[in-house]
Amino acid sequence: MSPESTGQNEHYLRVFWRGFRTWRGNRPFWAGLFTMVGGLPIAYFPYANMHLGNVTLAMSTTAGAGSLIIGILLITLGLTMWFHHIVRVFAGVAAILLALISIPVANIGGFLIGFLFALLGGALSVSWAPGEPASEPELVPVGAAGEKSGESGPGTQKSGPEFHSTAAVPQQPEQYDTTVEVDGGRHRAG
């Protein structure tokens, strides 16, 4: 390859990271991540056994099935926020409600860890709004913007309409007279 070649110069990890950032920017990524992280302790703690020496502490309760269902639903809602961000408001409200229900059902919401993460993820999902796409400048024929398109005489021929960008036309700011009158007002120069 010559030094002027632009092909295949980027490392594949950089290309992957740029694509991931684009994907992440088009959806409520952090909302889905926090919601899924909140669902894990809610589903895990009722089935966990802690060992302290020879003593085993079982935290399972009679509502173990309810905790498992709430945790799995929170993980599902987090994935929904990622892959179906059209329903992000519904998923956010459902995550908030499930986080609140997990307090009495699932060991105080997974010892408040799962509750706080799920609540934060639901709030982020409800408040997320997609960005506006960058608008391209509109091309307008030269004569259509109120400007003269040139003198058309008998000897001139045009091959086609001339176009220019409306974004390239500089806007003239209004000019004001800065002298102070007796009444204290400023008057438009003109």
Number of helices: 6
Strand content: 5-15%
- Largest sheet composition: 2 strands, antiparallel
- SS-derived structural category: mainly alpha
**SSE pattern:** HHEEHHHHEE
Low-pLDDT segments: none
- Evaluate the radius of gyration: 31 Å
Shape: elongated
* Distance from first to last alpha carbon: 64 Å
Mean pLDDT: 77
Outline the structure in words:
It is built from six helices and four strands, in the order H-H-E-E-H-H-H-H-E-E. The chain has 190 residues and is mainly alpha-helical. The strands form two sheets. It has a two-stranded antiparallel ribbon. Strand 1 and strand 2 form a beta hairpin. It is elongated, with a radius of gyration of 31 Å. The model has no long low-confidence stretch (mean pLDDT 77). It comes from Streptomyces gelaticus.
Task: Tell me the layout of helices and strands.
Layout: H1 12-25, H2 29-44, E1 49-52, E2 55-58, H3 64-83, H4 88-105, H5 107-111, H6 113-127, E3 139-141, E4 163-165
Antiparallel strand pairs: 1-2, 3-4
Transmembrane segments: 28-45, 57-79, 86-105
Keywords: Membrane, Transmembrane, Transmembrane helix
Region (Disordered): 137-190
